[in-house]
Write a structure and sequence with these properties.
Blueprint lengths: L9 H13 L3 H15 L4 E7 L5 E7 L31 H11 L5 E9 L2 E10 L7 H40 L3 E5 L5 E4 L1 H7 L3 H4 L4 H4 L10 H4 L13 E7 L5 E12 L5 E10 L1 H35 L8 H32 L7 E4 L1 H13 L5 E6 L7 E4 H17 L5 E10 L2 E7 L23 H5 L6 H11 L4 E6 L3 E9 L6
Helix pairs in contact: 1-4, 2-4, 9-10, 10-14, 11-12, 12-14
The structure holds adenosine-5'-diphosphate.
Length: 521
């Protein structure tokens, strides 16, 4: 006859069951179950064994027994059947082991009670309570214990499922977070719920600033002409006829750098066909778009800038070669001079184009030698003088100007481009001054003119490839917008800097530095 009065207290049992249901953390839940079972049955030792995926059992929680002594009870979980055929759970003969365990616990242990936790007909684990006395249970006691075990089984199963879901969620989060592509998860109203690390890197917007806001506010994609893609062509709002949920556009990173992003959207639907969330995969396609733009620019430059000198050359050559005309010496010389000049322009343009593409591909190799910059400047100016009657030139270097280590050909190109621009963009003539000085560990070379000048907001942009100030003079002046890009790339490859000081209508001064460092050959 089972004497523990607590067992009869249904209220107490309900309380325990309530506490168990609220607990989703498996270790805490097992501890609670075990403590309650031991207390209900006035036991000394408790043990919970759980079943693994492969069907074998292992001890998962213990009460009243030191961890090192658990192995003494090992027959309790060895070779257990997977299916529950009977509620009278088989308990192996433990007499010898119980003596050892009694010694470990310090009190005699006589009776082992097994409460199998069963879901369907599968045993998911067993609660063992071991106690000092060996009384029998009444039928109602047994029923109560079985109810307790059934309830424990359900809560353990729930906690395990919850743990699995949590692990799965953590795994998915890790995959999303570490994905090389940007991933954002949106609510049906386009509120951002997840914003992964790749997106933080692409946009500079931290996750805590993006989550909770609408994606069209955070990304605000625009076409190259500045039209908002998010507001006029979001595929989640205006479903495209081909059904392809794709959007592409430019946005500004937090640091102001422009990035081109391409988004692919995958909506997820519930059973009724309503969108529950949208997974958006975001890629940085800036390099692709820049390359495309470069290609288009290149085509338009080639068609415009290269065609003009070619048609002049062809026109002059055709005229001079006419059989029916008898050109005097002067006309011939003039015609040939024009042809030579146009061919030189072509050559320069082709050089610039080739060097620009080499620079883009990172393939421009510098040949460093010691260069006497003042004499190189003199040479370039000498050549330029022949091209203009409206300008005067001055070259101004201190007599002790030191030799610099640089690539002679590239430096000649840099000076040619700067002086050429000074001539081109001061059509009314004026003084073009090339000067040099030493400042600390570098030399500074400046080319100044008294020409049209450059608006302040254009002064950074003009160093980008193919960019030209939009003015009537520029439109009339041949040029591909590559000269300053080359100047900047070459100077920077030498470890120097380049900048412009300019006032609209007053003239411009382009300056660059070269470091005075000893380079190993
Ligand atoms: P290009 O002269 O072939 O157009 P550059 O890269 O050399 O290309 O120059 C880019 C733009 O910068 C020019 O189109 C012009 O608008 C402006 N620019 C360059 N140099 C000067 C200058 N000395 N004075 C005024 N504007 C200049």
């Amino acid at each position: 006859m089972f004497s523990d009065y607590r067992l009869r207290q249904r209220d107490y049992l309900l309380q325990i069951i309530h506490a168990m249901t609220a607990q989703l953390d498996l270790p805490s839940l097992l501890k609670l179950i075990l403590q309650s079972a031991v207390e209900m049955l006035s036991g000394q030792v408790g043990l919970i064994v759980l079943r693994r995926e492969d069907g074998s059992f292992y001890p998962r929680a213990s009460y009243g027994l030191a961890i090192q002594a658990i192995h003494l009870l090992e027959p309790l979980w060895r070779d257990l059947p997977r299916h529950a055929t009977s509620r009278n759970w088989h308990i192996p003969d433990l007499s010898f082991r119980l003596d050892l365990a009694s010694a470990a616990v310090g009190v005699p242990l006589r009776q082992v009670i097994a409460l199998p936790m069963v879901i369907g007909d599968e045993v998911i684990g067993i609660i063992y309570v071991i106690r000092s006395f060996g009384a029998d249970f009444t039928l109602s006691d047994r029923q109560l214990l079985a109810d307790f075990a059934d309830q424990a089984a359900i809560t353990v199963q729930n906690a395990r499922l919850y743990q699995q879901v949590e692990e799965e969620r953590a795994r998915l989060n890790a995959i999303i977070e570490n994905s090389g592509d940007g991933v954002m998860i949106l609510d049906p109203d386009r509120t951002i719920r997840i914003w992964n690390r790749a997106l933080v890197n692409m946009t500079g917007v931290p996750a805590e600033d993006a989550i909770g806001r609408h994606c069209y506010e955070v990304l605000d994609l625009k076409t190259r002409d500045g039209v908002s893609v998010c507001h006029t062509a979001c595929p989640l709002v205006h479903l495209p006829p081909d059904g392809r949920l794709y959007a592409e556009g430019d946005t500004r990173r937090i640091d102001g750098v422009k990035v081109s992003l391409a988004d692919n959207y995958s909506p997820q639907y519930d059973r009724e066909g309503n969108i529950v969330q949208v997974i958006a995969n975001v890629r940085d396609v800036s390099r692709l778009r820049d390359a495309e733009e470069m290609k288009n620019m290149l085509l338009s430059v080639i068609s415009h800038e290269l065609k003009t000198p070619v048609s002049v050359i062809k026109g002059y050559a055709g005229t001079l070669a006419r059989q029916d005309a008898n050109w005097d010496r002067e006309t011939l010389t003039e015609g040939l001079r024009v042809i030579e000049e146009e061919a030189d322009k072509l050559n320069e343009l082709i050089d610039n184009l080739l060097n620009a593409s080499r620079l883009q591909a990172g393939g421009l190799k510098l040949q460093f030698t010691y260069i006497d910059l003042p004499s190189l400047v003199e040479k370039v100016v000498q050549k330029m003088r022949a091209q203009t009657q409206h300008h005067t030139f001055s070259v101004d270097f201190p007599p002790d100007f030191p030799p610099v280590q640089a690539d002679y050909e590239r430096m000649r190109e840099v000076l040619t481009n700067l002086i050429n621009n000074a001539i081109k963009y001061s059509p009314a003539g004026g003084l073009i001054r090339v000067s040099g000085s030493v400042r600390g560990h570098e030399v500074v070379v400046s080319v100044s003119d008294e020409g049209v000048g450059i608006p302040e907001n254009e002064q950074d942009r003009i160093f980008e490839p193919f960019s030209r100030v939009d003015s009537s003079l520029t439109r009339q002046t041949p040029g591909a917008g590559l000269g300053l890009f080359l100047v900047k790339s070459v100077v920077e490859a030498h470890g120097g800097r380049v900048w412009v000081d300019s006032q609209l209508g007053r003239g411009s001064t382009f300056s660059f530095t070269l470091p005075l460092v000893e380079r190993r050959p």
